[in-house]
Here is the input.
Amino acid sequence: MALWICLACGLEHADTAAPPPACEICSEERQFVPPTGQTWTTSERLESSGSVLREELVEPGLRRVTVTPRVGIGQHALLVQTSEGNLLWEPPGFISEAGVRLVRDLGGIAAVTGSHPHLMGAMVSWSQAFGGAPIYVAAADRAWTRRPDPAIVHWSGEANPLPGIRLVQCGGHFAGSSVLHWADGAEGRGVIFTGDTVFIGPDGRTVSAMRSYPNLLPLPEGAVGQILDRLEPLPYDRAYGSFGQVIESDARDVVRRSLARYITWLRGEVDDF
Ligand SMILES: [Zn+2]
Ligand SMILES: [Zn+2]
Here is the structure.
């Protein structure tokens, strides 16, 4: 038996003797099976081939955890430190004893979650390494869970896994796509973690939102408008993406302007077309 990890997306699957016939996440229109075909690995194999977990300080109370070399989609996990324990966001698709020690030295994990099914990595293994920490999965996306586990908590609309941390369901990319709001971040001005719900551009001054990023499928106006509406009540100044991108300040204004621009393009209300 083994916990198979899809090499393309980094999602850990349920414990089976042989790998699943296909990765349902990668076979669906929002992701892709590489032209070279479906391949599988395990954390043990990744570790013996040299994969390591590293962490770095992002800002006070926030650490970034990365896997080198990159596994799956290659998201950077974020570990938020609170007075009641830490939350692991977008868990890596790889776990090792050395990696667990590294995170234990940072205070361990009291809750695990991610923005949507593409970026949940080895969420159950990370939970189990820390006493079965609750794993927050949006109820709307429950069918995409690759490795069911009793620690999974289904939620809708909004959840508060730890003090000062809110999960806000925005939909769009997935019906359950969410952002995390961290009230104490950015020296108390508030931070959001955007995942693929709102994708931060390379200059950190623009965002977009898509049904599929690799396959360039846009969202309809109603979905973009819903994301704007769900983010509107949140106080925040900074935003972190899941691939190292950051909007250092005025993030709320950047999100509003960028998504309003998106809607003008969807409507064709543009001059240079
Ligand atoms: Zn996959
Ligand atoms: Zn995604």
Remarks:
- The pocket of zinc ion (ligand 1) is lined by residues 6, 8-9, 11, 23, 25-26 (CB under 6 Å).
- The helical segments are 24-27, 43-48, 97-105, 123-129, 221-231, 251-267.
- The longest strand covers residues 52-59.
- The CA atoms of residues 52 and 68 lie 5 Å apart.
